[in-house]
Specification:
The protein is α+β, with helices and mostly antiparallel strands and 166 residues long. It has one domain: Hotdog Thioesterase (Thiol Ester Dehydrase, Chain A), CATH 3.10.129.10. It contains two helices and six strands. Keywords: Cytoplasm, Lipid A biosynthesis, Lipid biosynthesis, Lipid metabolism, Lyase.
């Protein structure tokens, strides 16, 4: 495994222990299993292995298990957060919070269920005034399952009660 600096040199992979260094999420909300590749300030590819043991399948839906769209979007946002932290060369601390500030153009093309491997490809579109904008595509076996434009911001917990702006 090679992880490079934040000067735009491509990295290779991150395993789950390394992912946990960049995300505060833990079970059952940690939705990124492996980073396949990343390039600072540009893009990241990661996977979520969808298993029959996921708690949400008990109710969504017992007769035909489908991963909720909101969780697929959350998995892509978590992937985007990893890229943002790696791009700025910072590992979050207990005072770091990443907030979703917008989702545009979300489209769901096919269901994702147990046994699928959701591949998330995220590109940074821009970062301005602390708001990161990304183009996100999720696919299974090469077929697009969802796509969306995401916006997030990184804040300190002490600033968390302040308005996030536009």
């Amino acid at each position: 495994m090679t992880i490079t600096d934040n000067k735009g040199v491509p990295g290779k992979t991150l395993d789950i222990c390394q992912i946990k260094e960049y995300l505060p999420h833990r079970y059952p909300m940690l939705l990124v299993d492996r980073v396949l590749d990343w390039e600072a300030h540009k893009s990241i590819s990661a996977i979520k292995n969808v298993t029959a043991n996921e708690e949400f399948f008990n109710g969504h839906f017992p007769h035909k298990p489908v991963m909720p769209g909101v969780l697929m979007i959350e998995a892509m946002a978590q992937t985007a957060a990893i890229l943002s932290f790696m791009s700025i060369g910072v590992k979050p601390d207990a005072n770091s919070v990443v907030y979703f500030v917008g989702i545009d153009n979300a489209r769901f093309k096919r269901p994702v269920g147990p046994g699928d491997q959701l591949r998330m490809d995220i590109e940074i579109v821009r970062c301005s005034r602390g708001i990161w904008k990304y183009k996100a595509v999720g696919s299974v076996d090469g077929a697009i399952a969802l796509e969306a434009d995401l916006m997030c911001t990184i804040r300190s917990a002490s600033d968390a009660s302040q308005p996030m702006g536009n």
